[in-house]
Fold:
Amino acid sequence: MSEKGYWYGIQGVRHGPVSFREIQQLVQSGRLHATDYIWNEQHQIWTRVMDFPHAMDPPSAPEEAPAPVFSAPQEHVDPFAQDASEAAGLPAEEEEAPVEYAGLWIRAGAFIIDGFALGFVGMIWFFIAYALGLLDNYMALADSAEHISLHEIWASLPWVYYAVSTLIAWLYEALLLSSSWQATIGKRAMGIQVVDAEGARCSFARASLRFVIKNFVSGWFFFGYLLVLTNERKQALHDMVAGTFCEKL
Structure:
């Protein structure tokens, strides 16, 4: 068998020929997965990477590369078929639809819906804070002044009120993004989900980082949000930092 006597199949498409060391490199890089298939000239049968001896080992130096010991049943397969689904042993797979990323306006719609959802929860927290006496300074100011400036309103509210409000917003976003929904209520309503670089569900830590950058950096003059218009995968600044993407469902 020649050194480049291996082929591999990904999503029903055959690639090759490559060497066994290149097969190992493809596996280590993540391009070739354990459930993908390999074919070689000697054994002539498509075999899953996980079942092929040494295929998942780190690539060795050419002179140290192990010789695969393969005991699979012999079955002749044409390695030059148009695609791997025509070869025996490699099941046909449906071609994955291209990922469609959520643009600025659909995300703006999600932002507005989330604003209403958080506003409702915030209203409940406002009445709880009032009942606890946390808003006494604010109420006294409201009763004694005909016109209250925004600065005066902010100054009259205690730090505990702001801290709990921030906690609510953080848990709302981080818990929902890291849940099976992979979306807040607004994103869910607009048909958007947030995924990591592997296309999987975000971890709570990643969703939390995204929240921090989104609310304390991206919001300045909306610069971070406008970056959605500048790149093909439509990432805002907080997506770039957290390594996330907004995909349409």
User: Anything to note?
Assistant: Residues 104-131 form the longest helix (28 residues). The mean pLDDT is 78. The chain has nine helices and six strands. Residues 6-86 form one domain.
